[in-house]
Amino acid sequence: MNENTPVLPRRSAVAGTVAVCGLAAGCARYGGPTAPPPPDAGDGGGGGETGTGSAQAPSGEVLGAAADIPVGGGKVFKDQEIVVVQPVEGEFKGFSAVCTHQGCLVNAVADGTINCDCHGSKFAVADGAVTAGPAPEPLGEQQVSVTPDGQIVLGEAPPAETTEAPAQEETTEAPPPGLASTGDIPVGGGKIFADEEVVITQPTAGEFRAFSAVCTHQGCMVTKITGGTINCECHGSKFAVADGGVTAGPASKPLPERTVRVTGDQISLT
Ligand code: FES
Ligand code: FES
C-alpha cells in the first residue's frame, strides 16, 4: 500500500471521537488490578488529546494468553484491532491497532515499536507515541486487563469467578444417637444402662427422667426396675421411678438425678 492506495477507514468513522480509556486505564498487570497511570502519559506528543483512539471493543472479550505477549514487544489482534504490548515484564498495555496516519492496521511489533507498513509509521511499545512518521498522533490506548488465569481481556477483567461453596444445605441436624430410644423405656418403668451407670425412667407417658444407677447404700449397681421401683439387690434398697426417692432401705438417700434431653425419639444424657 502507498499514498495512493485507497485506505480502508478502519473504524475511522469513530477514530478521533471515541474517548480512549486514557493512558492510565490502558495497562494491566498480571494477576492484579489495572495498574496506576504512568507518570509520563503526555510524552510522545499529542498525548493530551484523547481523540485518537479507536472504537471501543467489547469489554471482556478474551484476546489471548498473556504468555503470548513478548516482554518488550507485543502482538496485534487484527480482529479486535488491538495491539497488546508488554513493555516491561508483567505490565500489559493495549493500544488501538489503527494507525493514526491513514487508518491502516498496524501489522507488526518489533524492536520496541508498533509498526504500520502502509507508510512506515512507528509507535513506541511503551506508550504508543509516534517514533516515526508520517503518523501525527500516538496510538489510542485501549484498556486491557489480565485475568487471574493469565488471559488478556479487553477492558476490565471480569471478576474472578467466585467458586462459591455450595450453600450449606440447611440440614436439620440429625440428633446424635442417644443413649436410648423413647420406645425403649416402658411407661411406669425404666431401663438400666450399666455402662453409663444411669437408669432412665418414664414415670408417665412422655416424661423421661434419669438417675444414677449406683445405689446410695453401699454403691452396688441397681439391677432391676419392677413395680414402679428401681431395685438394688445387694441389700434390697428400692427407689421410686418417679423421683429416685427411697421407698425401701437400707439406702437412706435418693438416687441422684441426672438430666436427660429428648430429641425426637432419642434420649441422651446432658
Ligand atoms: S496509515 Fe500511513 S503509516 Fe499507517
Ligand atoms: S448397696 Fe444397694 S442396698 Fe446396699
From TrEMBL:
The keyword Transmembrane helix does not apply. InterPro entries: Rieske_2Fe-2S, Rieske_2Fe-2S_sf, Rieske_Fe-S_prot, Rieske_Fe-S_prot_C. Residues 34-59, 160-180 are annotated as: Disordered. Pfam families: Rieske (PF00355). Residues 42-51 have a biased composition (Gly residues). Its cofactor is [2Fe-2S] cluster. Residues 160-169 have a biased composition (Low complexity). GO terms for cellular component: membrane. Keywords: 2Fe-2S, Disulfide bond, Iron, Iron-sulfur, Metal-binding. Residues 61-153, 177-269 form the Rieske domain. Gene3D superfamilies: Rieske [2Fe-2S] iron-sulphur domain (2.102.10.10). GO terms for molecular function: 2 iron, 2 sulfur cluster binding; metal ion binding; monooxygenase activity; oxidoreductase activity, acting on paired donors, with incorporation or reduction of molecular oxygen. Iron-sulfur subunit of the cytochrome bc1 complex, an essential component of the respiratory electron transport chain required for ATP synthesis. The bc1 complex catalyzes the oxidation of menaquinol and the reduction of cytochrome c in the respiratory chain. The bc1 complex operates through a Q-cycle mechanism that couples electron transfer to generation of the proton gradient that drives ATP synthesis. This is Cytochrome bc1 complex Rieske iron-sulfur subunit. It comes from Actinophytocola xanthii.
